[in-house]
TrEMBL record:
The active site is at residue 247. Belongs to the metallo-dependent hydrolases superfamily. DHOase family. Class II DHOase subfamily. One of its GO terms (molecular function) is dihydroorotase activity. One of its GO terms (biological process) is 'de novo' pyrimidine nucleobase biosynthetic process. Catalyzes the reversible cyclization of carbamoyl aspartate to dihydroorotate. Residues 11-303 form the Amidohydrolase-related domain. The gene is pyrC. The lineage of its organism: Bacteria, Pseudomonadati, Pseudomonadota, Alphaproteobacteria, Rhodobacterales. This is Dihydroorotase. Keywords: Hydrolase, Metal-binding, Pyrimidine biosynthesis, Zinc. The modification N6-carboxylysine is found at residue 98. One of its GO terms (cellular component) is cytosol.
Length: 348
C-alpha cells in the first residue's frame, strides 16, 4: 500500500507553550492535526477558566482557526475551585482537567501533593462528565524512576478511581505494560489512555547506551524494550481505549543539552510519518485511523473530523528538518532512528 487516506487526526496531548515558542511550533501541529488537547503547564500554569480562555485566544492568533481547534485544559491545584471548573466546561472553554503530581515533571510545582484536597473537584468533575487527564508518576524519591508509573497506578490512580465512581480518566502518555494491563482490565468504560509517538519507537537504551542523548529524554522516561513492545501492541490492536497523544514538548536545545536537561521530545513535525511506519511494521496500517482519528473523539464524545489527510509512501526516504528555529534558539525535531518513507500531503 503506497497511499492511505485518514480522517484528519487529532492530538490528545500537546504542549504548545506560549509567546515566541507558541508562534514557532503551533503551525507544525496545525499542519497535520485538526484538534489538540492543550497542556496547561505554562509558567505560571493555566488554573482558571479565564486564563484558559485567554490562552486559547493566543493559540488562535498563532494558527488559523479554520485549520486547528485548541481544546483547553485546566491545571489542577489544591486550590482549584470546583465551581470554576464546572462553569468553564459548561461555557465550552475547557475540555478537561490535568492532574500533575507536584514535582513530577516540567512546571509541575503547583501540582497536587495531597490527593484528599482535590476530592471535591474530582467529584464535581465526575458529576459533570469532565475528563481528568493524569500524569501517572509518583514523586516519592525512594521510588526508582523506572517504577514510578506502575507504583502510581496502585497507590494513587486506582484509589482515586474507586473513590470517585463515574470519573472519566485518561492515563496520559503511558509507558509500561502495567499501564496497558490496567486499561485492558477496566470494565467501567470510563478509562482511556494516550500513547505518544516516541514511546512507540524508543526504549531506555536509546537514551543511555553509547552516550547520553538528551533529545530522547522525556517524562515518563522510556522504559525497557518489553514495555515498548506492549505499547505498540496496545496502539495497533484496534482497542478504542488507546489513542494518540503526542506529548510533543518543545524545549530549546540550550535547555536540553546541558547538565540538568529538560524532559520532552519535539515530535509534532514528524508524528504521522513515524506512526505510519510503526503501524506498517506491525502489519496494522488498517488500524492507524482508529488510533489517530477515531478513538480519541469517541472517548471525548466528539465527532471525528470531516476533513481527510493522505499519507504517501515513497521508495526513497525524505529528510525532515532537523531543527525548528525559534526566537529563543533552535529546537531539535525528534529523530526516530529509521528512515521516513511515509509523508503527509500537507506542505512540510
Ligand atoms: O517529557 C515531558 N515533557 N513530560 C512531561 O510530562 C512534560 C513535558 C514538558 O512540558 O516539557
Ligand atoms: Zn505532556
Amino acid at each position: 500500500m503506497d497511499t492511505i487516506t485518514l480522517r484528519r487526526p487529532d492530538d490528545w496531548h500537546l504542549h504548545l507553550r506560549d509567546g515566541a515558542m507558541l508562534a514557532a511550533v503551533a503551525p507544525d501541529s496545525a499542519r497535520d492535526f485538526g484538534r489538540a488537547i492543550i497542556m496547561p503547564n505554562l509558567v505560571p500554569p493555566v488554573v482558571t477558566g479565564a486564563q484558559a480562555a485567554a490562552y486559547r485566544d493566543r493559540i488562535r492568533a498563532a494558527v488559523p482557526a479554520a485549520d486547528f481547534a485548541p481544546l483547553m485544559t485546566l491545571y489542577l491545584t489544591e486550590a482549584t475551585d470546583p465551581a470554576d471548573v464546572v462553569a468553564a466546561h459548561a461555557a465550552g472553554i475547557i475540555t478537561a482537567v490535568k492532574l500533575y503530581p507536584a514535582g513530577a515533571t516540567t512546571n509541575s510545582a503547583s501540582g497536587v501533593r495531597d490527593f484528599d484536597r482535590v476530592r471535591g473537584v474530582l467529584e464535581a468533575m465526575a458529576e459533570a462528565a469532565i475528563p481528568l487527564l493524569v500524569h501517572g508518576e509518583v514523586t516519592d524519591p525512594d521510588i526508582d524512576i523506572f517504577d514510578r508509573e506502575a507504583v502510581f497506578i496502585d497507590r494513587v490512580l486506582d484509589p482515586i478511581r474507586r473513590a470517585t465512581p463515574g470519573l472519566r480518566v485518561v492515563m496520559e502518555h503511558i509507558t509500561t505494560s502495567e499501564a496497558v494491563g490496567y486499561v485492558r482490565a477496566d470494565t467501567s468504560g470510563a478509562l482511556g489512555a494516550t500513547v505518544t509517538v516516541h514511546h512507540l519507537v524508543i526504549n531506555r537504551n536509546h537514551i543511555l547506551a553509547g552516550g547520553i542523548r538528551p533529545h530522547y529524554y522525556c517524562l515518563p522516561v522510556a522504559k525497557r524494550e518489553t514495555h515498548r513492545v506492549a505499547l505498540v501492541d496496545a496502539a495497533t490492536s484496534g482497542d478504542a481505549r488507546f489513542f494518540l497523544g503526542t506529548d510533543s514538548a518543545p524545549h530549546v536545545d540550550a535547555a536540553k543539552e546541558t547538565g540538568c536537561g529538560c524532559a520532552g521530545c519535539y515530535t509534532a513535525p514528524v508524528a504521522l510519518p513515524i506512526l505510519a511506519q510503526v503501524f506498517e511494521d506491525a502489519g496494522a496500517l488498517d488500524r492507524l485511523e482508529g488510533f489517530t482519528s477515531l478513538h480519541g473523539p469517541a472517548f471525548y464524545g466528539l465527532a471525528p473530523n470531516e476533513a481527510r489527510i493522505t499519507l504517501t509512501r515513497a521508495a526513497e526516504p525524505w529528510s525532515p528538518h532537523r531543527k525548528r528555529s525559534t526566537a529563543g534558539g533552535p529546537v531539535t525535531v525528534f529523530d526516530p532512528g529509521f528512515p521516513l518513507h511515509w509523508r503527509t500531503n500537507a506542505p512540510a
